[in-house]
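forwarding from the other thread:

> can someone predict this with pyridoxal-5'-phosphate?

sure thing
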Amino acid sequence: MSKSTAHYRPETRLVHSGTLRSQYGETSEALFLTQGYVYDTAEQCEARFKGEDPGFIYSRYSNPTIAMFERRMIELEGAEAARSAATGMAAVTTAILAPLKAGDHLVASRALFGSCLYVVQDLLPRYGIETTLVDGANLDEWQRAVRPNTKTFFLESPTNPTLDVLDIPGIAEIAHKAGARLVVDNVFATPIWQSPLALGADVVVYSATKHIDGQGRCLGGIILSSEAFIAEHIHNFMRQTGPSISPFNAWVLLKGLETLGVRVRAQTETAARIADVLASHPKISRLVFPGRADHPQAALVKKQMRGGSTLVGFEVKGGKQAAFRVLNELKLAKISNNLGDAKSLVTHPATTTHQRLKPEDRAALGISEGFIRFSAGLEHADDLIEDLTAALEKA
Ligand SMILES: Cc1ncc(COP(=O)(O)O)c(C=O)c1O
């Protein structure tokens, strides 16, 4: 067990928390690529299985490299416990499915990443779990959706891709009065800009694939919560069903955490500069950037977030044709459905991440045919602005 680093500031925790140094005294955390573990005696093996000896048993359950990644995330997030998973979707699905049973009810914000929407709208009902989608920005809708069997509220904030910010403390209060828990997908905010547990959420989930890796290498996810929630609902589900992360990916993510603060700050500064240029651009009909005074929930951003976003959303005049023209003209920013990368990535949500939605549902969420999501990378801001303004000229 590593020593607690909870008294240090987040930047320090990102570098040091959770390190389990082996007998060789390595500087960089070791990568334990092993499926299993050997025991000195049959008695020790028996004690390990009984939970009386605190070592590792099998890497589907846990692994020293994975334990380091989980501990670093726990101390960064201010959680009591965590379980990592193979992907962000494995983490989301486990966090919302594992504690529920047939007859329970879940309420979720309608503005969800496409795969999360599939889990809520299509998958859970197949197993007898009722679900209701609400306009997440409207607290009355959360309240009205509550039923006697409501067990979970689920949201992401800022939302993907329109970057709306939802009132986490307000929604947590409604959930708790109803005897339900609030699960927050904090991918867009990152642990650098928002701490959902401190705002009243009960569970926080990440696709570590995004900013935590931040260099486009591997997938991963993590669920963070109280000791009781992880022990009661997550631990055994993950052990027995096996959506476990590879130790190699956990190692990449652990090393990614060391530079997370530096990267997210630099990418946010760049995104803010891009937003300022786009705000007055004649070819843009709508701009969303958490952190600007003209963001629809600017007051809420100030209250619950420590910074803006590495992403900018904007609508090009001229619909899909104009948006595609911009994407195709960009030389530096790459067309991709991913985000949070060192390389700037640009997405057309209506035809990719949210193409599964009915056109009327997309329109209700503000995902128009001309809407583009820009994930700022680590390139020089001036190069990105020149690239974007040149592409907009052609739109
Ligand atoms: C908000 C959000 N949640 C969850 C996921 C799923 O993560 P992963 O691709 O790692 O499964 C993504 C992106 O893919 C996302 O944008």
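The longest strand covers residues 150-156. thats all i got for now
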